[in-house]
Amino acid sequence: MDSFGVLATVTASTKRQAAPTSGKTAAPVTNLASLMCTPLDPVDAELKKRLGLDTPGELLQTFVDGGLDIRQGDYLTVCSTDYPVRACEDWTWPVNGLAFRRLILEDLKR
Predict the structure, then answer these.
(1) Model confidence, pTM
(2) What is the 3-state secondary structure (H, E, C) of the chain?
(3) How far apart are CA 97 and CA 100, in angstroms?
(4) Is pLDDT above 80 for 79?
């Protein structure tokens, strides 16, 4: 198992807003299921500032395999909680040079 596989211990899925029908917005639908990600960690102030994300909710980050169809506006579902994806960026894992995606999520603390 590679080093990322050891760290990616959380099972998640994504949801994406369905295309409107008859002018009405539908609820988000599952886009990707059973993907593995790293545990959700807080975003540091430097990254929050660099991304220009001003939000009342706490920002979290996680990493997934590169090439997955995940984009800003999707939701990452972890343990039945939906986290809006506020930003995505390609990221190279320093240990092995493989490509991953960093997802910046918002924890709305409802």
Answers:
(1) 0.84
(2) CCHHHHHCCEEEEEEECCCCECCECCCCEEEEEEEEECCCEECCHHHHHHHCCCCCCEEEEEEEECCCCCCCCCEEEECCEEEEEEEEEEEECCCCCCEEEEEEEEECCC
(3) 9
(4) yes
pLDDT tens digits, 28-76: 999 999 999 999 999 987 877 777 777 777 899 999 998 899 999 999 9
Which residues are CB-neighbours of 109 under 8 A, at least 6 positions away?
Answer: 57, 58
Q: What mean pLDDT value characterizes the chain?
A: 87
Distance between CA atoms of 76 and 91, rounded to whole angstroms? 18
Residue found by looking up tokens 């609820």 in the block: 27
Q: How far apart are CA 80 and CA 76, in angstroms?
A: 10
Is the pLDDT at 2 greater than 70? The verdict is no
> Encoding tokens for residue 31?
């886009």
